[in-house]
């Protein structure tokens, strides 16, 4: 009986939220010119210049273009690279799906989601655009997509110019240290809860800073991940296939013992990167999930410094 009663309350709450949402949506969008955008979920009428954007997974991309992000998911929200100004109106809307009541209270005029199962609910609140992660596999592709969506092509050009300038500055520092990224291969690994994961350049972990920014070459196995799912769980015995001039390993403090154990593994000891002292340990909390344009720009110096420290 309690379960039935709880269900009835939940349904009633959703109906109330939906009614409120209709009012919120009409108020937030009528002041803007509307345009048609071809999204994964069809042709969507959206504001020509959205002012209050709720976005899953991509708050960095939206904020890097100077747009106002009023909410994002719990995983993306902690991004340490976004400035206080970029996050001034941003709240944590929950995960894996947004809390509908919080979302409505933020009065978005555009919602961007990666969750096709939630589109119907979100559309009752504001115009909703569904995006596909695989289609936004690099920093440049994602910037191009969101610049078109948000009508911010000039802001995109400004950001890319600043990013290129920052990257070139770091390349000079690497060159002075005798490191030529265009002739140097890399692989990305992560230790987590007793497991080992390998990554392509499109799944955070500094991938875009290292490739799009600094111009390092991916190892053959890393390339295959970049073209596919973006990551794979691997075992210690298979790590020889991920050998490269530099191997980047990130892990949380709780997994320090796992890294110590890996260092004693015979396969690990025989890697060329290990023998050269080119294993670069990275702070899990700074690199594991954050791969947007602003994060990648600020990670340029982080990785440059880490590489040079490991090379000495």
TrEMBL record:
Its main location: other. Keywords: Signal, Transport. InterPro entries: ABC_transptr_periplasmic_BD, Bact_iron-sidero_bind. It is found in: Cell envelope. GO terms for biological process: iron coordination entity transport. This is Iron complex transport system substrate-binding protein. One of its GO terms (cellular component) is outer membrane-bounded periplasmic space. Residues 50-311 form the Fe/B12 periplasmic-binding domain. Belongs to the bacterial solute-binding protein 8 family. It holds the Pfam family Peripla_BP_2. It comes from Lactovum miscens. Residues 1-21 form the signal peptide.
């Amino acid at each position: 009986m309690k379960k039935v009663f709880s269900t009835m309350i939940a349904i009633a709450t959703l109906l109330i939220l939906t009614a409120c949402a209709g009012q919120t949506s009409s108020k937030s969008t009528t002041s803007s010119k509307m345009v048609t955008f071809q999204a994964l979920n069809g042709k969507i009428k959206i504001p020509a210049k959205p002012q209050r954007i709720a976005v899953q997974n991509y708050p960095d991309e939206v904020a890097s273009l100077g747009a106002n992000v009023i909410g994002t998911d719990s995983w993306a929200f902690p991004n340490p690279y976004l400035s206080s100004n970029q996050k001034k109106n941003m709240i944590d809307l929950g995960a894996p799906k947004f809390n509908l009541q919080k979302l409505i209270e933020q009065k978005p005029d555009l919602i961007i989601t990666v969750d096709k199962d939630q589109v119907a609910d979100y559309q009752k609140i504001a115009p909703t655009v569904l995006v596909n992660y695989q289609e936004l596999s690099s920093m440049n592709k994602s910037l191009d997509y969101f610049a078109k969506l948000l009508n911010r092509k000039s802001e995109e050009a400004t950001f890319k110019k600043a990013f290129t300038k920052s990257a070139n500055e770091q390349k000079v520092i690497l060159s002075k240290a005798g490191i030529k990224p265009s002739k140097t291969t890399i692989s990305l690994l992560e230790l987590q809860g007793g497991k080992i994961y390998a990554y392509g350049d499109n799944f955070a972990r500094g991938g875009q800073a290292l490739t799009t920014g600094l111009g390092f070459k991916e190892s053959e196995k890393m390339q295959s991940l970049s073209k596919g799912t973006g990551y794979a769980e691997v075992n210690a015995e298979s790590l020889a296939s991920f050998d490269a001039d530099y191997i980047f390993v990130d892990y949380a403090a709780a997994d320090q013992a796992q890294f110590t154990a890996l260092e004693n593994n015979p396969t690990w000891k025989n890697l060329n990167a290990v023998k050269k002292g080119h294993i670069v340990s990275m702070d899990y909390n700074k690199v594991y999930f954050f791969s947007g344009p602003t994060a990648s720009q600020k990670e340029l110096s982080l990785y440059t410094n880490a590489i040079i420290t490991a090379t000495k």
